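Batch manifest, entry 17 of 40.
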Amino acid sequence: AAKGPAPHLKRTGSTATVKTMLLEWCRARTRNYQHVEVQNFSGSWGSGLAFCALLHSFFPDAFDYDALDPSARKDNFALAFATAEERAGCAPLLEVEDMVRLPVPDAKCVYTYLQELYRCLVAKGLVKTKKR
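Output type: structure tokens
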């Protein structure tokens, strides 16, 4: 069995391939959410709304996405990370304070967190993966 941060992403190619697949998955899950356009692992996540949208797509009863304010970055990150921990069992790998300190989140940190979230959602049976 594959090991590592996202064992269920098919490892047929390079790290760039896995990153592209994860980015496409995030883009597909958040496509219809207002104020969210996932293009990368840094600036696209800066308001916290992309994290909220991704989690809301799995847990629509957790919070009212339409009530969120794009400028309330700290609140958005706090809501997303708490929801990920409570509902998906995702380890709190990112700190809200670290996310709001920088105008653009660190891409490696965001990527690592999204790998962990993906892994947790797969483990809960919320993301279906292709059998090898």
